[in-house]
Amino acid sequence: MSAAISINQRARSAEQKALRRQAVLEAAETYFQEVGYEAFSMAQLGKRSGVAKGTLYLYFDTREALFLTLYEQSLMRWSRGFIDALSDDITSEAYAKLLYRTALADGVFLPLLIRLEHVIEHNVAIPRLIESKRIFIEQVEGVAKRSATALQLSAAQAVEVVKTMGVLLIGATQTDQSPSLADEALPTDVQNLIASFSSEPLFIKNAVRIIEGIRAEALSNP
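The chain above was modelled as a monomer; its predicted structure follows.
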């Protein structure tokens, strides 16, 4: 008999519960991409997934615990894609562009990363937070190991680059949170100002400086 279970069936075995939980996560990810963080409702998720709101809290203690799981899935998804796309002897600029574009390509990863330390992690149990931090460490180590080869850096340098890129990505993309004025007729000086604060050129320019700075520092301090 197949272990598959419909999302609106009662889950009995451990395997069925795991399948139900994953089905809820898939529904939550789709819903999140539609409405965003602030408008996301556990009650509405329950209606969309055919699961009672109370049952959702059997799988996730809080709304933020659900978000933390979605973040972890997106982090692992991004890191696999980024590692696979890296080539040996990549330039600092090409590395920065690849990191930025793959991070933004996932509709879940960056919106949750931005809120991770300020909101999400404050509303989960400590054991769950520790588990999540270990997942993060594992992903950073994997990305750093591949980055060391691609950028010709030492292991320590590569870890520093990857961690710093994460901080820079959060900071740079915060500049894109203002209202969209794409369809508005704006004066040229205002258009130029907005363009100068666009997250992509800000991230790439400063990412290259950081990578080259870390490399230069190592050369000057053998």
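The domain at 89-220 is CATH 1.10.357.10 (Tetracycline Repressor; domain 2).
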